[in-house]
Amino acid sequence: MNTPDIVPPSLADLEALARAALAALPEAFARNLQPVVIRVDDFPDEETEREMELESPFDILGLYRGVSIAGQEGSQPPVMPDMIFLYRRPILDYWCETGEDLAHVVRHVLIHEIGHHFGLSDADMEAIEERMDED
Question: Within its chain, how far is the Cα of 120 from the centroid?
């Protein structure tokens, strides 16, 4: 029996989903995200794995690196831009395990990491997602 080759979504595919989710964010968030770089990698690098004390590179779906907006007041300008990392392979694993819509998973991880940029609580992030689901 021949089965068609199934190709998993690429780094570019996940980046496109992240860009679409970003475009759908409320204007107040999008306006303040201009200095933030969104990057999609297959896995976290080894340094991140050590810093986060991960048992496996599959233990993290995304990561915010930088200084939150609240932490930027009165501080020196950052040397490196704030970055949001989305990790493709762990996201795809989660997607396969849960059966959730991939765009929804990517949006959820992106909102969570953006929330760290803004210094939001988990409840705030959930409220943002609920509002987006209503629209």
Answer: 14
CA angle 105–111–117, rounded 5-degree value: 145
> Residue 83: beta bridge partners?
37, 65
Distances 101 to 19, 49, 98 between C-alpha atoms, Å: 16, 27, 9
pTM of the model as a whole: 0.84
What is the tens place of the pLDDT at every residue in 58-107? 999 999 988 766 655 555 665 677 889 999 999 999 999 999 999 999 99
pLDDT for the residue numbered 114? 86
Distance CA 3, CA 64 (A): 39
Give me the long-range contacts of 59-65 (CB less than 8 A, separation at least 24): 59/90, 60/87, 60/90, 61/86, 61/87, 61/90, 61/91, 61/94, 61/105, 61/109, 62/86, 62/87, 62/91, 62/109, 62/110, 62/112, 62/113, 63/87, 63/113, 64/113, 64/114, 64/116, 64/117
DSSP character at residue 125:
H
Separation of CA 92 from chain center: 13
Write out the two tokens for 122: 């988990």
